[in-house]
Amino acid sequence: MFEQTFKAIDDVLWKDAGCSSELDYTEQTSWMLFLKYLDDFEQDRKFNAELEGREYQYIIAPEHRWSRWAAPKDANGNFDHNNALTGSDLIDYVDGELFPYLKGFKKSADSPDTIEYKIGEIFGEIKNKIQSGYSLRDALEKVDELRFRSQEEKHELSHLYETKIKNMGNAGRNGGEYYTPRPLIRAMIDVIQPKIGETIYDGAAGSAGFLCEAYDYLRQGGRAQKKLSTKDLKTLQERTFYAKEKKSLAYVIAIMNMILHGIETPNVIHTNTLAENLQDIQPSQQHDIILANPPFGGKERKEVQQNFPIKTGETAFLFLQHFMKALKPGGRAAIVIKNTFLSNTDNAAIALRKELLQNHNLHTVLDCPAKTFLGAGVKTVVLFFTKGEPTQKIWYYQLDPGRSLGKTNPLNDKDLQEFVELQKGFEDSDKSWSLNVADLDQATWDLSVKNPNSKEEVELREPKEIIAEIIALDKESEAILGKIQELV
User: Fold this and answer.
1) How many domains does the chain have?
2) DSSP 235
3) Are 428 and 434 a contacting pair, CB within 8 Å?
4) pLDDT by residue (tens digit) across 235-263?
5) pTM of the predicted model, to two decimals?
6) How many CB atoms sit inside 10 A of residue 323's CB?
7) In terms of domains, do 124 and 204 share one?
8) In angstroms, what CA-CA distances link 226 with 164, 195, 232, 237, 467?
9) 434 partner at 20 to 30 Å CA-CA among 9, 69, 184, 282?
């Protein structure tokens, strides 16, 4: 229903000089979608208030409401082109009046967990990049065709928006930062099995894919598919999902993605998670479940490293320490990390593995194939652990979809079915095995993935190496033939 509209919006933005990449298209679509959502949200609230005989207090002032400036209608409910701002008038209004007005909500909001505060945060971070008022007018008319009223409409919009995020991830060098493959997230959630009433946290939220998938899982009643009560639904909305995100664009996309999935006032804080001192995390700030894919390979400054007992510049290692501290005793975590974490011999990696094994039960390691993350050239593993008891045995599973992954052939749910099934009983197979922690080298705590069932593979050589060897053999043959020739 809405797919053509999304394509038409992209076409409009593609022609505008201010938008040059998939990241820009997603960012600019996001702020327009958000304001259209807000208008529909307010209309629904007004309707419900009238049914209850109350007067509805609008969030947005009359002159800045979507129906006034973005999509004015005539008496018949048709688009009113005569009263719609366009060209330079529209750009002047959006940049000079609308955005400053919306940004001001951050100061006037009662608290950070209100929709008012989120409005202020979003428009304090995002800028209108569309340069032509005629392009902007076209895009606004297209966005106005979208509806956020029913659960079906929101579901379809969330699906289309996820596709935009996926394309954005594919477009950038740091693709994995924006997009974790949804089949992998769903398998992680299936193993962790969250329940209503537990809090779920992601301190490196990106586009909030983990929280959106966890919401869908719980909304459908979890693995047992049980029907939710009104109280359960309220708990899901207000006291279940918590996130932090450092980057402005990802923060805005995370909020929009959660809203489209049905979480009306997302609990996302725009902050650098690693700037928080680990000692300052109180029990009241700890969570039952942590699902995350922290950024790989970043380098943090010395003052940030001071917040952590194990000093390292590797961002992912700092995040792992943060997650271990932010987990409640008995809490469960599933964290994506570079596979080199299992074997690195630097002091920080060894100390971190030791800490993880001694104070947490690292019960499962999922070894992911190359190109699981498009746009990120690193191999990854998923660590599944429970806080508060030492590890005695680790169950490994080597994921092998039997094909090379890529843009046209990504990971799918079927690829992970066997992992989820075998993990329930930590069963051995050709792809899975267990390792006793008592057998580890206590100097290195090396946890490398070494499948005892795999046949010795013939190492494929590089073409350059083979050609060099052929040239060397040719020269050798030439020399031998030369000597034979002398003898004849």
Assistant:
1) 3
2) H
3) yes
4) 998 899 999 999 888 888 898 889 888 88
5) 0.85
6) 25
7) no
8) 32, 11, 11, 17, 62
9) 184
